[in-house]
Amino acid sequence: MKIAVLPGDGIGPEVTREAVRVIEALDLGIAMDEALVGGCAYKAKGHPLPAETLDLARASDAILFGAVGDPDCDALERHLRPEQAILGLRKELTLFANLRPAKVFAGLESHSALRPEVAGAIDLLIVRELNGDVYFGEKGFRQNAKGEREGYDIMSYSESEVRRIAHVAFRAAMGRGKRLCSVDKANVLETSQLWRDVIVEVAKDYPQVELEHMYVDNAAMQLVRAPGKFDVVVTGNLFGDILSDQASMCVGSIGLLASASLGERQTAHGTFGLYEPIHGSAPDIAGKGLANPMATILSAAMLLRHSLGLAQAADRIEAAVAAVLADGVLGGDLGGTAGTAEIGDAVLAKL
Ligand SMILES: NC(=O)c1ccc[n+]([C@@H]2O[C@H](COP(=O)([O-])OP(=O)(O)OC[C@H]3O[C@@H](n4cnc5c(N)ncnc54)[C@H](O)[C@@H]3O)[C@@H](O)[C@H]2O)c1
Ligand SMILES: CC(C)[C@H](C(=O)O)[C@@H](O)C(=O)O
Ligand SMILES: [Mg+2]
């Protein structure tokens, strides 16, 4: 069993280090190889996703990813920016299904941005499409008829792209509360009308799942008003990006939300995938030992479960994280004083 570890930029290396320590402590016989990705890869090798990094990712059973993004690189041509590395990995490896679970941990109800009685009911899964949408359409700058500069990004989804993510979402709903909410903007966008039509077609294969459609603006509102009503949410790349950051604050902090990005490729042990916190490189706190590593530690648990078939080890990590949070060992993002390594030490002590 082999994991490619891609720490990346900013707090990426800090949070990834703690997740690697947790995996090592379980002594599961997993080999871990590290490579450069993002702004640090651009600075060292001239490209945010060097060929050797992609080769290592392909040759592994799973990828543990930190975060990419570096303010020094924000003025580079787009194809050289750090963010292109994560977009490139998702696309090159056909990791089209991004699972972003959001659940309130016992004892953290009062740390949510919502009232505790509202927050306490949250247990949802966002299934975000990851290979299409406005992210990957034609984009550029041009001059309009008035001679002004104009930027454009084409939004589109093909029916096969919607169908494959729909099946992932319906199957996820079957394994949970059997309720699926498809989020779109079909009142305005043809991309969303196609999305909705295909979701309705696929629903015929899953008669036990109760399907609801919701416009994204309403979904953003309902996520704050009554988040406990959601079970599985399926949505496109852009809406899923935004709603998952919002869901993180409903739970308490962006430093708590993990993710799995999966495709169809099977390895000897499970489904090949990339695992990362939903947050970014957080340049404002990078290098200070302040980042909450829980999202990355929980991503490591998802990796063990989905890609390596090690469900018991994943359960152990998740139980340790829950115990540490219940003990009140919290980082600054949750109003506490614990640093990155201190939180990692606390998880190790509970394993
Ligand atoms: N998948 C990724 O690698 C990824 C995801 C999101 C953003 N980014 C990139 O990261 C850079 C910064 O983006 P941003 O500021 O919009 O988003 P961000 O998620 O990096 O940070 C947003 C805010 O949340 C805080 N935060 C994030 N993670 C935290 C943690 N683990 N513990 C405590 N606080 C945490 C940050 O300090 C900041 O105040 C940009 O270059 C962006 O493109 C990368
Ligand atoms: C960094 C960026 C490309 C990325 C995205 O938009 O998907 C990030 O926000 C995320 O949520 O993983
Ligand atoms: Mg995001």
Automatic annotation (TrEMBL):
Q: Where is this site: Important for catalysis?
A: 135, 185
Enzyme Commission code:
1.1.1.85
Matching entries from SMART domains are given as: Iso_dh (SM01329)
Which co-factors does it depend on?
Mn(2+); Mg(2+)
Give the location in the cell. Cytoplasm
Enzyme class comes to oxidoreductase
Q: Which residues bind substrate?
A: 90, 100, 128, 217
Q: Does the keyword Oxidoreductase feature in the UniProt annotation?
A: yes
Q: Which reaction does it catalyse?
A: (2R,3S)-3-isopropylmalate + NAD(+) = 4-methyl-2-oxopentanoate + CO2 + NADH
Keyword Iron-sulfur listed: no
SUPFAM superfamilies on file? Isocitrate/Isopropylmalate dehydrogenase-like
Q: What family does the database annotate?
A: Belongs to the isocitrate and isopropylmalate dehydrogenases family. LeuB type 1 subfamily.
NCBIfam families found in the cross-reference section: leuB
Whom does it interact with, and what assembly results? Homodimer.
Q: What is this protein called?
A: 3-isopropylmalate dehydrogenase
Organism expressing this protein natively: Novosphingobium capsulatum
| Gene designation | leuB
